[in-house]
Design goal:
Blueprint: E1 4-7, E2 11-13, E3 16-18, E4 33-38, E5 46-51, E6 56-62, E7 65-70, E8 75-80, E9 85-89, E10 94-98, E11 105-110, E12 119-120, H1 123-131
Antiparallel strand pairs: 1-9, 2-3, 4-11, 5-10, 5-12, 6-9, 6-11, 7-8, 7-10
Bound molecules: dTDP-4-keto-6-deoxyglucose (T46).
The site of dTDP-4-keto-6-deoxyglucose has 11 residues, from strand 4, strand 5 and strand 6.
């Protein structure tokens, strides 16, 4: 599986909306790290790497952007513009993300602490590792 789109349960009424995420039926892993990204110019391409083991769920809490995912055999583009959806990305998936709206804020929930040793930042190395 290259990715999954998770639909979160919204709790809310006329006072506003709330989504709570914790490991369970609608969230796939124990969250060890949270980070967020904003103020990225429209044409910038971020990512350009894969992770060996890390699993992540990406939520565009405001605005929109595009994720391009690649497992070495096929490439898909996923447009994110809805805070009730999370893009689940398993390990061994090359990702790039771009086309940021001016108000884009991405929140990322990660299954592991930050470790540079888990990154594959060279595309040819990525292809070799997944073929091995
Ligand atoms: C992904 C997308 C959505 C840290 O020190 N701690 C962290 O937890 C992270 C994620 C990054 N950093 C440092 C490492 C680099 O010096 O922040 C700098 C930029 O990180 P990176 O090149 O990983 O940023 P993005 O935006 O290209 O990618 C990140 C995630 O790494 C990636 O897994 O899916 O956000």
């Amino acid at each position: 599986m290259m990715y999954a789109l998770l639909n979160f349960r919204v709790r809310g009424n006329h006072d506003g909306k709330l989504i709570a995420l914790e490991k369970g039926d609608d969230f796939p892993f124990e969250i060890k790290r949270v980070y967020y990204i904003w103020d990225t110019a429209h044409d910038v391409v971020r990512g350009k790497h894969a992770h060996r083991n890390l699993e992540q769920v990406i939520i565009c809490t405001s605005g929109s952007c595009d994720f391009i995912l690649d497992n070495g055999q096929e490439k898909v583009t996923v447009h994110l513009d809805n805070p009730t959806q999370g893009l689940y990305i398993p390990g061994n998936t090359w990702r790039e993300f771009t086309n940021f709206s001016a108000d884009c804020v991405i929140m990322v929930l990660a299954s592991e602490h930050y470790a540079e040793s888990d990154y594959i930042r060279d595309y040819d190395t990525f292809l070799k590792e997944i073929a091995a």
